[in-house]
Amino acid sequence: MSAPLRLRYPTEPASPNAVPAETTPPQMPPETSARGVGSQADADPSSPPELDRARALMHQQQARSTAFASVQTLFQDPAWDILLALFVAYEEGAPLTIDAVRAATGLSEITIRRWLLTLEHRGLITCWPQSEPLSRRSLGLTDDALTMMLHFLQEI
């Protein structure tokens, strides 16, 4: 990547009179489509290859969970599933909440909360606004996590 990456999500409203982050849509390039997280839509030629790869990884995880339903806990990787869901949401222009992450990953709310705290502590995700309880915050990748995810997805 030649241009520096910028986090599209605000960390806090700019002023006390600013619209809360949950109602402020992130800035997205005009060619970005608004498909659902993990949607199985046909690959869009205008969508970035990294987004298509992330969607494919999410689909593989869902297929694996279905095929190994009786022992699926053996194959759980909650941190990775959450990061993938957040990357897809980022590329589609919509921050996620805990409920949306749960729908995208199939993880329990308790598991998601535990991993969100770990991922936030490690500097991989951001939650905003800080004044809200975790369940009501928007979730997104940090610049560092986005850079790592893009590098990974470009290599596979």
Task: Explain what the structure shows.
This protein has 156 residues and is mainly alpha-helical. The protein is 44% helix and 5% strand. Strands 1-2 form a two-stranded antiparallel sheet. α1 packs antiparallel against α2 (78-92). The longest helix has 19 residues, at 49-67. The radius of gyration is 16 Å and the shape is globular. The two termini are 16 Å apart. Mean pLDDT is 78; it is low at 9-42.
SSE order and pairing:
Blueprint: H1 49-67, H2 78-92, H3 98-105, H4 109-121, E1 125-128, E2 138-141, H5 143-155
Antiparallel strand pairs: 1-2
Helix pairs in contact: 1-2
Sheet having the most strands = 2 strands, antiparallel
Biggest sheet: strands side by side, in what order? 1-2
Report the uncertain regions: 9-42
Strand content: 5-15%
Number of DSSP helices?
A: 5
Radius of gyration: 16 Å
Straight-line distance between termini: 16 Å
Structural class: mainly alpha
Mean pLDDT level: 78
**Total strand count, please?**
2
H-E order: HHHHEEH
Proportion of helical residues = 40-55%
Shape: globular
In short:
The chain is mainly α and 156 residues long. Helix content is 44%, strand content 5%.
Q: What key phrases describe this protein's structure?
A:
single chain, 156 residues, mainly alpha, two-stranded antiparallel ribbon, 2 strands, 5% strand
